[in-house]
Amino acid sequence: MSTNSIELSVVVPVYNEEKNIEMLFNRIKENIPVTDWELIFVNDGSADNTLPLVIGLSHQFPQVKYIDFSRNFGHQHAISAGIENAAGEYIIVMDGDGQDPPELISELLEKAKSGYEVVYAKRKKRKGEGFLKKFTAKIFYRILRNITSIEIPVDTGDFRIIHRKIQAILKQMPEQHKYIRGQISWIGFNQTFIEYDRAERIHGTTKFTYKKMIQFALDGISSFSTWPLKIATLMGFGVSFICFIVILYTVYQKLFGFTVTGWTSMQISILFLGGVQLIGIGILGEYLGRVNENVKNRPHYIVKDTNIESLKK
Known about the structure:
Blueprint: E1 8-14, H1 21-31, E2 37-43, H2 50-60, E3 64-69, H3 75-84, E4 90-93, H4 105-113, E5 118-126, H5 131-147, E6 156-163, H6 164-170, H7 180-187, E7 191-198, H8 210-224, H9 227-256, H10 263-296, E8 303-306, H11 309-312
Parallel strand pairs: 1-2, 1-4, 2-3, 5-7
Antiparallel strand pairs: 3-8, 4-6, 5-6
Helix pairs in contact: 5-8, 9-10
């Protein structure tokens, strides 16, 4: 199968998904609507039997490719690796837990061929997720939509299909803190969506902890919005105005009233000003930290093993 003949690539990042691999592969294989295709599993440092299962499938089916990282580099970098090394004219990204239904592959491809470079899957329902996770996700996506200068669709994940021209542009975006769905929205072109009900995870537990969710949110906000910096600036102006009023009041009391030395008021002032300053410094630190990571220019991931010939070179 030559590289140029591949019509569809399916990219699946996996991390400790040994119980889902074979089932997910069978569902994908059954729903591929073309004859020339490939399936790329990106193993993001799994500690279970995920990699041996994937390698076993690659021995049975030449369409199965794999990229094995030297350690866990994160979900977004795993997606990037798959996209960057996909050979298909169209590329589908889906999670490895089975919640993104392979049964939508045909619909995504058909929609893309009707004249869209990006077709993302929008969730109508999210089964098997707690109230807190759904609530925080809903709030985050709506806040992000309102503070960024680009239109990032709400209620969507990374489950989507892109044309290879999107792939080419993503390769030119070298930032360390990846936020793939935001990058794709920023690129533009013709984009649309299809709706679906996100199923409950069949086996295992989610790897997307609240800590990772917070980090993911920070990456999304810092990559596509300067609003935190603007908030720090507005807070500085606000505090300066309050301090100016307090100074005028103090001078008035000194000239026309009474002055009482108060420990409480002094402590409140110090703590208030110190808190605002630390918030501002913290926000600046987040942005400077990301600049520092990008300046180092380290590779986004390290490949330990793969059966993709172009990546071996």
